[in-house]
Every structure is written in structure tokens, then in C-alpha cells.
Amino acid sequence: MSAADRARQAFAEAFGGQPEGIWAAPGRVNVIGEHTDYNEGFVLPVALPHTTRAAVARRDDGLVALVSAQHPGDRVELPVAELAPGRPDGWAGYPAGVVDVLRDRVPGGVSVLVDGDVPAGMGLSSSAALSCSVALALRDLAAPELAVADLVDVARRAENDFVGAPTGILDQSASLLCTAGHALFLDTRDRGSEQVPLDLRAAGLELLVVDTGTTHDHATGGYGDRRRECEQATERLGVRALRDVPDVAALAPLDDGTPEGGVLLRRARHIVTENARVLEVVRILRETADPAAIGPVLTAGHASLRDDFEISTVELDTAVATALEAGATGARMVGGGFGGSAVVLVDAGRTGTVARAITDRFAQRGFAPPRAFAVVPAAGARRLA
Ligand code: GLA
């Protein structure tokens, strides 16, 4: 049975009727450009083949009814008028947040069944897949004048204002705007974007996602701290955004000899060097026939996230170091940090060796078994039926 048919059937079981349509939105893996999005910088994500499907129908009783195949028994039903930040919370907060942003368009309410296979809490943007699938559905059904690019902000507002996770626009842009076979080079300041061809297989390479099994939650803790530190550095430097800092030398004023100044210097240095890495990777992909050359740039990105931004974990560092020892071309942690996944660029013939080396090392160190899978750049959000 196709994913669309499964969603249709689950919708019928949950709500006793047919959906008006079925939409899918993918998770993402970011090739490079981490934590640059809320600093008005550059990102370069690809969409995953893994998606969330949303089967949706409008109602006429004013209720939002939400069911997830991944959380059976956890049915949420409340009047549209009673949606408020944190109510509902958990997985339901994402689709509810989208309905809340577009509440004028669905005054009669809406039934939503979601079914997805993007691993949750692994730095692969399962939350964006969830909110973007519902945003595209509501656009097609009730807000046709909105462009897909407008939905980036609908989904971001759901996440920022309703769920309370202070994220940027990387994940939502990737889920909505990526195309198969390409990485999305996005300037998060002016939203200009370019689809950069990324055919790793033709170059004999594979992009391996290594899920370390350690989860994160961006609504709490470290992610918000990093965002605040970047804001403080921006203020002290007197620039509009860290994007505007031309080079590392221009960060010198942050280094005032205090521990706090040292922290801000390191955080800002990550952003400045990471923006340069995005531009370098895009240059390599555009101008050379050698995508393997991006490997060392990815590895440098990991060192920066580990040492300057300080958001890696022992599991992520172990995965990256082991991949490189086993012959990978490049490796780095991906996403918001404090857990989640690493991405490894590797010669196709070595994928098995690298994956085994990581699994063995994790076992030796007493970590939970990692899960590795190869990905090719897949399509962004779309209507399935
Ligand atoms: C999370 C956020 C994004 C972005 C990344 C880090 O995925 O949702 O907005 O900041 O972390 O690059």
C-alpha cells in the first residue's frame, strides 16, 4: 500500500470519512550552514526521502481534530477558538500551531491525520516535516493566494510562537523549497535561493546520515542560549547581524579579557566561519567536478560546532572521528545540536566499512547502537493525492 493510501485509510478510521487530499513534506539534512539562519546568513540543506504525510479535511463544527499514526490513542480535539500557545502541546502543537496561524481560513475547523517516517528528535527536522505538510494542505484547501515560500513563515510562526521553539527558517525552507537532486542554497536575509545540483552518486560518493540515538528538544535549553549569545555578540559589535561581520579579525572587540567576552567571541567566530564555509561549498559544487572536495569543509564545520559553538556531544564527536578514521571524506554533526545525527560524506565503496566502524566504536564505548542510512537529495513538500 502506498504512503498516501495508508494515510487515507488511517484518516477514514480516525474520522469516518474521506480526506480532501493528502500532502507530504520531508525532513532535511543540512549539508553546511548551522545556526547561521537566525544570524541572517547562508544555509545549504537537502530534503530527505523521509516525509510526514498529512490527510486533511475541513469541518463545519469549529473543531480542530488531530490524530497521529505515531502517537496512537493520543487524539486531540478542541475548538479552533481555544487554540493558544502550548495548547495543545507535544507533537500536536506543530499542526495546531499552523491551524492557529491560518485560523481565519478554517473557521469551521479541520481534521488532520499525520503519518510520518522522519526520525523524531534526531536533528532531521521531523517537526518541520509535520508543520509544513499541514501548512501546504491548508494553503491548497483554503489560502490559494499564498505562495509556497510564504508558508515558510507560517510554519516558522507555528514553531516559534505556538510551540515555543526559537528556531530560524532553515528547516521550514528546506522542507518546502528543496528539489530532488539539488541542495538549496538560501540566503536567509533576503530569501534569495538557488538550486545547486548535487549528484553525489555520479561522483561515486554517498551521504550517510548517522543517527546517534541521542535526542534534543529546541524548545528548552541550549538552542535558545546560543541564540541569545549571538544576539549579545551582535549588539556588542554594533552590526545588524553576525552575517555582516566581514572576517574573524573584525571580532577582536569581543575579546575583552573576560570569560563572557571569550564565549561571545567563540560563538560569533563559528557564525562568521560557517557562512564562509557555505560559500566555499557552493563554490566547489558550482565550479568543480569534484564534490569530494567539500569533505574537509564539512569536517572543519564540525570542529567549529564542537569547539567554538560548543553544541556537540560525545556521541556525535565519536561518530565523526570514527568515520574519518575509517576513511570518510568529511563528517560533521547536523542540526541544532546537543544530540541528534551526524552526516558523513564517503566513497560509495566504503560506506559499509565506515558504518561498521561507527557501530563497533559505539558498542565499545557503551553507547546505544547508532542507525546509519544513505540519503540522496529528495523532493520538497508536495500534494500526493
Ligand atoms: C534547528 C533550527 C534551525 C537551525 C538549526 C541549526 O534545526 O530549527 O532553524 O537554526 O537548528 O542550523
Automatic annotation (TrEMBL):
Protein family according to the UniProt entry: Belongs to the GHMP kinase family. GalK subfamily.
The protein's name in its UniProt record: Galactokinase
Domain GHMP kinase N-terminal: 95-177
Species for this entry: Geodermatophilus poikilotrophus
UniProt-listed Enzyme Commission number(s): 2.7.1.6
Residue intervals of the Galactokinase N-terminal domain: 9-58
One cellular-component annotation, GO: cytosol
A biological process term (GO) from this entry: galactose metabolic process
Residue span(s) of domain GHMP kinase C-terminal: 290-362
